[in-house]
Backbone:
């Protein structure tokens, strides 16, 4: 069964510093992987996704993630943090269920940006 | 393009009372999802519709939760009777179709507090 583990429920970085949010997955089949962002009192918004092909995926707002099969990881990075990046971030893996997609989410990482 | 609409945004009820949530997906989206997001956790899929048929309701507590999607458009999720552990944000999402390549778009959610 697919599952996702996000290392660190809370990450704090200074404005302009590197952002690194960690995600490890468990999947018995080649996974489809996603990162979502959730701002306060809002729904989730897709940042980026990996399905097949290039293992370095670029998303919105300057974020990118690299799929590493040997490490079963899909860590999210951004070279320089901005105050507006403060939010909750969720990693998710997709699995097929009766021909449809089912997303299994990690528990989330809250990102705080210090001025 | 209008996003996924949900109402109400907030609801406070006492245990053993009933409550209903409403979702209007993006126009033309065949697939509709209801998720439960307990504080400090990632969203958990409760039920998935394809048009007006149920694709996956394996994690829906059917003794108290029910959902319908009449005419394959709007959907309602009902809890009767509510328990304290039902306190959560209920997210509705929709996608053009059910395959992995189709992005899920999330509504702002309904925050339910059961006292």
Residues:
């Amino acid at each position: 069964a697919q599952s996702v583990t996000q290392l660190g429920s809370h990450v704090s970085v200074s404005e302009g510093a590197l952002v690194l949010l960690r995600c490890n997955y468990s999947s018995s089949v080649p996974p489809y992987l996603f990162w979502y962002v959730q701002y306060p009192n809002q729904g989730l918004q897709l940042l980026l996704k990996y399905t097949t092909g290039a293992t370095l995926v670029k998303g919105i707002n300057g974020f990118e993630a690299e799929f590493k099969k040997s490490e079963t990881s899909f860590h999210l990075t951004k070279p320089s943090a901005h105050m507006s990046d403060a939010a909750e971030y969720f990693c998710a893996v997709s699995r097929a269920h009766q021909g449809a997609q089912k997303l299994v989410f990690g528990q989330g990482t809250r990102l705080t940006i210090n001025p | 393009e209008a996003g996924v609409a949900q109402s109400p945004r907030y609801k406070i009820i006492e245990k053993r009372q009933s409550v209903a949530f409403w979702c209007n997906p993006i126009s033309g989206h065949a697939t509709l999802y209801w998720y439960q997001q307990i504080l400090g956790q990632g969203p958990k899929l409760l039920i998935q519709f394809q048009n007006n048929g149920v694709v996956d309701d394996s994690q829906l507590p059917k003794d108290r939760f029910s959902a319908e999607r009449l005419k394959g458009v709007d959907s309602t999720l009902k809890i009767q009777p509510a328990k304290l552990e039902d306190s959560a944000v209920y997210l509705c999402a929709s996608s053009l179709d059910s395959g992995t390549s189709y992005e899920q778009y999330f509504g702002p959610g309904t925050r339910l507090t059961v006292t």
